[in-house]
Amino acid sequence: MSENVAAHSEHEETTTGLNHRKLLMWAFLGSDCMFFGSLIATYVIYQGKSKVGPFPEDVFSIPVTSVSTFVLLMSSMSMVLAYAALTRGNMKTFRVWLFSTAILGMTFLAFQVFEFHDFANHKVELDCTNIVMGELTDHEKSFAHKCAAEGVEEFKEQHGLTPRTNLFGTTFFTLTGFHGAHVTLGVIWLLSIAFHSFRGGVRPETNLDLDLAALYWHFVDVVWIVIFTVVYLFGVFPGI
Amino acid sequence: MAEDNISATSTNQESSQDAHTGHPTPMTYFKVAMALSVITAIEVAIFYVEDLGHGIIPILVILSAGKFALVAMFYMHLKYDAKLFSGFFIGGLILATTVGIALLGLFKFFA
Predict the structure, then answer these.
(1) Cβ B88–A33 below 8 Å, yes or no?
(2) pLDDT, mean over chain A
(3) Is the dihedral of CA A110, A113, A116, A122 positive or negative?
(4) What gap in Å lies between CA A78 and CA A94, rounded to an integer?
(5) How far apart are CA A55 and CA A119, in angstroms?
(6) Substitution target from A67, A91, A225 for chain B, most B beta carbons within 10 A
(7) Which of A54-63, A219-228, A229-238, B76-85 has the lowest mean pLDDT?
(8) Would you state the torsion angle of the CA atoms of residues B94, B97, B101, B104, taken in this order, to the nearest 10 degrees?
(9) Is the distance from CB of B3 to CB of A85 less than 8 angstroms?
(10) Nearest-CA neighbor of A120 among A158, A161, A157, A166?
């Protein structure tokens, strides 16, 4: 992010010598760190405190979330490539990468919608003819007695996870929901810039507009890096 | 479109300038993306290694911090930008971490 960034950030006639819009964006990102820090801390505090299921090990699918994480990471790459293309004055390439970023962002959101829907419709399914207690989660164990009580070969009952189900549901949906809202805002922002560029509103010499959107987008990415590790990977690991 | 035709010569010149001034080139961005993907794959692979026990926590924290640093340094170009920007971001990060540790201390470890 080359000379143009330097031109914007280091030769401004301001009290700091830095562009105040960019400084304001960094101040906002710093404050957003505290916002997400509080939400992540709240999730960790209440981890393992839920009285009823489903629990993380019942609903999380690490392979699916890994793919959505990969999608978001790749969107960061396409974002910087869009910025690099704009800085070089290559408008066609800039638009291709910017639309790619928005599409990857929407793909991530689609994964999140799928995940939320899947969690809300989670079912406890037990093969009553072959129950091995050691292979069941704590939530499933609480239904094992129903096999004998109801005298069925297969037990199936819907027990979805919603924000009202338990502490896990409340803290999980609040944290990931706010992150999803940030991604949604980012996608709208990127699409606005893309469409604005068709009307000549985005030029190499005014690349700060894109730079600010890019900073926001990368921030959303780094927050997800933390959420993926703390919420998903640590969430399923026993004993944490 | 006229604006699309900004010369290839100019593009080549800037690429070479990037290389000389130490600012990231598209190839650097691509390499960072590959590094992020590989680290994520390692994280997921480690997650399925049951023998690690609680040793998994510091490993995942270090890998996650590495990914965070790569994005912040290269994609958010903190490595190349004014130090005041880093100060604002790292300041917020330190405050967030402090608040998180304080909350954990109050409600989890000393409750």
Answers:
(1) no
(2) 87
(3) negative
(4) 9
(5) 10
(6) A225
(7) A229-238
(8) 160
(9) no
(10) A161
Nearest CA to CA, how far is B83 from chain A (Å)?
11
Which of A40, A57, A72 has the alpha carbon at shortest distance from A227?
A40
A73 and B18 in contact by Cβ < 8 A? Answer: no
How near does any CA of chain A get to the CA of B17, in Å?
A: 9
Strands (E), chain A: 123-127, 154-158
One-letter identity of residue A72:
L
Cβ-based contacts of B25 with chain A (< 8 Å): 84
Alpha-carbon distance of A114 to A99, in angstroms, equals 22
- pLDDT over 90 percentage in chain A: 58
Residue of B5, B52, B75 best to disrupt the A interface, most CBs of A under 10 A: B75
